[in-house]
Write a structure and sequence with these properties.
alpha+beta, 96 residues, Alpha-Beta Plaits, 4 strands, four-stranded antiparallel sheet, single chain, 4 helices
């Protein structure tokens, strides 16, 4: 199984944009059947230096992850809602 985790940092954007990113990401499992589990949330602000939004998804295979990664809906969310506004994006894929 593959776990994909993304940390998104937004600076100087309003709460509505951050909520839109969260809502768009939370819609992914209904659009991309290869996603087995998907968790998205806003950082609680309990420590300094943290990201703004975290998304983590599990996929049965590398091929399933790659299908998700290149899926038109995923690419649309990245292009329309994340890349134009994000100040830092860190991601990693691990085998679990």
């Amino acid at each position: 199984m593959i776990r994909h985790t993304v940390l998104l940092t937004f600076d100087g954007v309003d709460d509505a944009l951050i909520q839109r990113v969260i809502d768009e990401l939370r819609a992914m499992p209904s659009l991309i059947p290869e996603i087995q589990t998907y968790t998205v949330g806003r950082d609680l602000g309990l420590a300094e230096g943290t990201a703004t939004v975290v998304a983590s998804g599990d996929f049965a295979t590398v091929d399933d992850y790659q299908t998700y990664s290149g899926h038109p809906e995923h690419v649309r969310v990245l292009d329309d809602h994340i890349r134009p506004h994000v100040t830092a994006l860190t991601r990693a894929q691990i085998e679990i």
